[in-house]
Amino acid sequence: MRIYSKKTFQFDxxxxxxxxxxxxxxxxxxxxxxxxxxxxxxxxxxxGDLERIDSKQEEKAIDSDNKEEKASKPKSQKGASKAxxxxxxxxxxxxxxxxxxxxxxxxxxx
Length: 110
Fold this sequence. Notes:
The protein has 3 helices and 5 strands; from the N terminus they run ββββαβαα. It has helices at 39-47, 56-72, 102-109; strands spanning 2-5, 9-11, 21-23, 27-30, 50-53. The protein is elongated and about 45 Å long.
């Protein structure tokens, strides 16, 4: 069985009789037929994150869609996505209080 996965998934055999199968993000993969009976496969198909490929035409359509999506995405600067945002200054370190406790204020007023 051939599938196309929009996300990375691990499919565990329903009875544990076979080792797990991993389908990588944005890839077409050949997987054993038992994968269709796994819970993760059923969830992934229902969410739209995984498609079963039944013909070469479907595979070509998926490949062309992927190429169009990648071409339309702007290329980001190298390392820009991993950069940490600068911390904003905060007043947490300034814990100085200017108001006096209520009991002192009441005594001053009397």
